[in-house]
Amino acid sequence: MESTIDFPPSATPALSLSLPHIRHQLIRLEDTVLFHLIERAQFPLNASIYTPGRIPLPGSTLSFSDWVLRSQEELQSKIRRFQSPDEHPFFPDAMQPPILPALLYPQVLWPNTVNLNPELKQRYITSVLPGVCAQTGRPERPEAQENYGSAASADVLCLQSLSRRIHYGKFVAESKFAQHPETFVPLIKAADRQGIDEAITDAAVEKKVLERLRLKAEMYGADPNFSNMGGPGNGNGGTEQGVRKISGEAVVAMYRDHVIPLTKTVEVEYLMQRLRGTEWE
Ligand SMILES: O=C(O)C(=O)C[C@]1(C(=O)O)C=C[C@@H](O)C=C1
Prior knowledge:
Blueprint: H1 13-16, H2 19-41, H3 64-78, H4 117-133, H5 148-167, H6 169-179, H7 181-189, H8 193-200, H9 203-220, H10 248-272
Helix pairs in contact: 2-5, 2-9, 3-5, 4-10, 5-10, 6-10, 7-8, 8-10, 9-10
The structure holds prephenic acid.
């Protein structure tokens, strides 16, 4: 698969490492994540698809959702998806040799093994999805086996866009490191993860991210046929006339409690490996 969003082989390392450019990509990814979540939220939670063994699968003990994700990744590996430096598989054991010739991406990141997808998937299933699929003020929707395939397909898109978002932290971290190695080298040498976390944190940017996201969720999640974007009784659950497509609160909570913290963990863990094989080691 050719470049995902901004790392075509033609992109220069200088552009890939410019912090405003990286933040612009993070803002674009907000839209991608949001639209995929809105697609997922039209179906019930369907807890059965996350339970291994609940839905019989030929030759596999995985949950239905994992099986769909793994099968997709196996196919996508053949068309180069995971050669792109902003793509990380959830199932590294499913990777196959690409059938297309390798693309030459510019070497922007320091070689590293950071992949937080297992933690991301766990949080997505146990915390993000229940918030996104709930419609405030309404009873939980019953399982709908006719939507199992649609829900699992939407999950693939949600998880992959979230994974891209959090692993973008590597580019953010590389950019910050390149700007201030004198700040980071001693912290990394001392394995001071908390110190690194503080050095990469920009509280004003985080606040802006959450404010923008709330606005986007309110706008994209409203049905324009009904004026249900605000006013009393028009909160997350919508009105009698129109149900919101997604809860703004759930989207903000997802970013505040999971997406931003995981992005920061990616940044910290990437930096912890940043001195390997350098003159600073
Ligand atoms: O934009 C940055 O500087 C980032 O590190 C990304 C990000 C985020 O996840 O949105 C994470 C940590 C910072 O505190 C601010 C924002």
